[in-house]
Specification:
The structure is a single chain. The termini are far apart. The protein has a domain at 90-195: OmpA-like domain (60s Ribosomal Protein L30, Chain: A), CATH 3.30.1330. The chain contains 5 helices and 4 strands. The protein is an alpha+beta fold.
């Protein structure tokens, strides 16, 4: 019995060795192709074209972003100029009066939506008079005019803390003439943006 096992074992080992050594032979690896100079040049051109296209796309993207930023800046500047123009529009008063005239109410009404949409904007309203009357009287009249313009805006929802008033009386005429036309131009309230734009 022992002899059969040893013989069997030797036979199995012999078969295994024969299978490992004498079985199929491995195929040699395929030859490495020689580099083709034309295909290398084509690949390099394709790589360079791809890099150039990517750089061009990046430059185009930067240019478009800069153009958009400039367009937005111009639009913002134009909007700010429109706001300044509307808010700085002067109103005028009748001789020796401080009531807002109905013809000037539309000017004040045009300021309302701008002030409502731009809650950080603050104004200074200055009251002015023509040369007739004493300095003291004209300073008081100028203050009444500035306050009348302020009150018009406050009555329509503008926070009074956003509006300061001052009077210059007859000190700052816009027309140095001594005629009714000159005096009519000098009887006014001016609006100055003092914050928020």
């Amino acid at each position: 019995m022992k002899r059969i096992n040893l013989v069997t074992l030797v036979a199995v080992v012999a078969i295994a060795v024969a299978a490992a050594c004498g079985g199929q032979q491995q195929a040699p690896p395929p030859p490495t192709p020689d580099p083709n100079p034309d295909s290398i040049a084509a690949a390099e051109r394709a790589r360079q074209d791809s890099l150039s296209a990517a750089e061009q796309a990046r430059q185009d993207s930067i240019r478009r972003a800069q153009e958009e930023a400039e367009r937005m800046r111009r639009a913002s500047d134009e909007e700010a100029a429109r706001i300044r123009s509307a808010l700085s529009q002067v109103i005028n008063f009748d001789f020796d009066r401080s009531e807002v005239r109905s013809s000037d109410a539309a000017i004040l009404d045009a300021k309302l939506p701008i002030l409502q949409q731009n809650a950080n904007v603050r104004l200074r309203i200055s009251g002015h008079c023509d040369e007739r009357g004493s300095d003291e009287y004209n300073l008081a009249l100028g203050m009444r005019r500035a306050n009348a313009a302020k009150q018009y805006l406050v009555d329509r929802g503008i926070d009074p803390s956003r509006i300061e008033v001052v009077s210059f009386g007859e000190e700052r005429p816009v027309d140095a003439g001594h005629s009714e036309d000159a005096w009519a131009r000098n009887r006014r309230a001016e609006f100055e943006i003092v914050g928020g734009l």
